[in-house]
Design brief:
6-stranded parallel sheet; Rossmann fold; 2 domains; about 30% helix
Length: about 325
């Protein structure tokens, strides 16, 4: 089969398309013929050896896919599914645990399906379990034109929140609006803009996959008992917290380690999918699709994220 391999830790440009054997699987695995693979920021980090998961070289990256079941327990051959294999998704065939495979509603395309596992399950864990989102909350989302950002905007809106989207440049405004944001503001001066939009009160939740120099102003943007959800650091710098700031308005900084959580509770993924499925079937969650690249252009797909050009979800078309 064709697959993309990381053969050296020299960044996205070092990815290679190769021919390898199909994965060796047992009867406990679901084998999927991949149609589309989702591209995520962890793959950018893996290409440099900077992610916490460090498989031996060479390896096939790719943590989320959509395709058709070939075989495996709990699923019928030919069934349309999305899956979170963890690794191996940038290939024509992948194997995954049944706990990490999810039936796709008929109306959900393979492109949308490949956009769901990493981003939507992460923000569901962040907003619902860690952030304790309540209907009527105001949620500020950083990086709102990217994959995590558009997912957070959509899900928060579907759950009854008012959503203020933050984007880095004006050309990303329409993407955030397409995801369902109520208001869109620029990162430059976002704190004052958010305060003005909330009549000086501040927001209940900040979703932050960016980190960097926005962090302190994100804390200052929170209302009384607000929660800042730390999802990632695409801005590069890991910020530090001066904890005295947490006392001023009884605010919280909350870690969103979705992978660490479900690894210890594997059944949690299916619980999440059960929560999201009615929203998918009702058309309330429709991933904003950005650029799609053929498998041979996996390097360019990763650079789209690495250079922060992405608007919407970046995908690889495998078949």
């Amino acid at each position: 089969m064709r697959a993309v391999q990381i053969t050296s830790l020299d960044g996205p440009a070092a990815l290679e398309v190769v021919t390898v054997d199909e994965p060796t699987v047992g009867p406990e695995n679901v084998v999927i013929d991949v149609r589309v693979a989702g591209v995520t920021f962890p793959e950018v980090l893996q290409s440099r050896g900077q992610y916490q998961v460090k498989p031996p070289l060479p390896f096939v990256p790719g943590s989320e896919v959509a395709g058709v079941v070939r075989s495996g327990p709990g699923f019928a051959p030919g069934q349309r599914v999305a899956a979170f294999p963890g690794l191996g998704g940038f290939a024509e065939v992948v194997a995954a645990s049944p706990a990490n495979v999810f039936p796709l509603p008929d109306a959900v395309s393979f492109e949308a399906g490949a956009s769901l596992p990493m981003n939507y399950l992460t923000v569901h864990f962040g907003l619902v379990r860690r952030g304790q989102l309540r209907q009527g909350d105001t949620v500020l989302v950083h990086g709102a034109a990217g994959g995590i950002g558009t997912a957070a905007v959509q899900l928060a809106s579907a759950l009854g929140a008012r959503v203020i989207a933050v984007v880095s440049t004006t050309d990303k405004i329409e993407t955030a609006k397409a995801a369902g944001a109520d208001e869109v503001i620029l990162a430059d001066g976002f704190k004052d803009a958010a305060k003005e939009l909330t009549g000086g009160r501040g927001v209940d939740i900040v979703v932050d996959p960016v980190g960097g120099d926005r962090f302190t102003d994100s804390l200052r943007s929170l209302a009384r008992e607000g929660r800042l959800l730390v999802i990632g650091f695409t801005g590069g710098e890991i910020p530090q917290v001066k904890v005295n700031r947490l006392l001023l308005n009884n605010i919280s900084v909350v870690g969103v380690g979705w992978g660490a959580f479900w690894t210890a509770e594997p059944t949690y993924l299916q619980e999440q999918w059960a929560d999201l499925s009615p929203l998918l079937e009702a058309g309330k969650l429709e991933p904003v699709i950005g650029r799609s690249f053929p498998l041979e252009q996996a390097s360019q797909a990763l650079l789209e994220l690495d250079e922060r050009r992405a608007t919407g979800k970046v995908l690889l078309t495998v078949r």
